Amino acid sequence: MIIGENRRAVIENIKAFAESGEFHNKVELNDPVLSAEQSRIITENYIKKKNSASYRIKSSLCVFMVKAVSRVINKDTEIVGIEKIPRDLGGMLITSNHFNPLENTVIRHLTDKLGRKELGIISQTSNFAMTGMLGYIMNYADTIPIYANPRYLAGDFLSVMRERLVDKKQPVLLYPEQEMWFNYRKPRPPKSGAYFYAAKLNVPIVSCFVEIADLDKDDTNEFKKVKYILHVLSVLYPDPEKSVRENTRELGDLDYRLKKTCYETVYGKPLTYKFENSDIAGWKEAL
Prior knowledge:
Blueprint lengths: L6 H14 L15 H14 L3 H21 L4 E3 L11 E4 L8 H10 L6 E5 H4 L3 H9 L2 E4 L3 H5 L1 H12 L3 E3 L19 H9 L3 E14 L5 E13 L7 H24 L20
């Protein structure tokens, strides 16, 4: 499913940033851009309302709807390596590549297969400012806002993560690549946030990578339909003998190496960031 306009301009942004090594830059053209004050208001409102009856009702209805949509989107999605996740695993931070507004449904498909009822999804505050149905989903589909404010990250956000991962033992999805790069096949070097919280709270990382396969069916004039293959790569545990800083670095390095190896295996070529048209899944110019 293609979401968004001006795909060619977005692809040009991806090409420029990939080749310049700016892997965490925003590439979409019309995403909301918020001030620090607007982001602060969004996070404060979330903290205030997340335990209210109204929010819980809206969230329950939204998650029910999203799960129904997820079953449709992922009716042909394959999961490879699900047996690597212990059935009695408690709270877990899931990392995956970020390439589509709806690809979190692939991870929801995984957690549903594991029998887990909840999936917290970390999302930037700019997504909470979207309008229409997509904005509603971004606000109520069990999403948790994040933005680069040290006080928030070390305070309310850390408390929410502790509640979800440690107290309630739920899975939480956090994209280490930060920004979504539309249909981009390659794993990008991660930012450290996911690994810091795993180390700080002593919870495992479930390393995942989504392979995107082109199908011989048109989606739009520019794109073919695609199919997802979710690879569960490993469960990574913080070393209790090491510091938070050491674990953060080592977990991030290992997670990236696993994703890199998986990419090279499934696509049959070494990972470089020299742009090729085939880096964009389904793009007819690459076929």
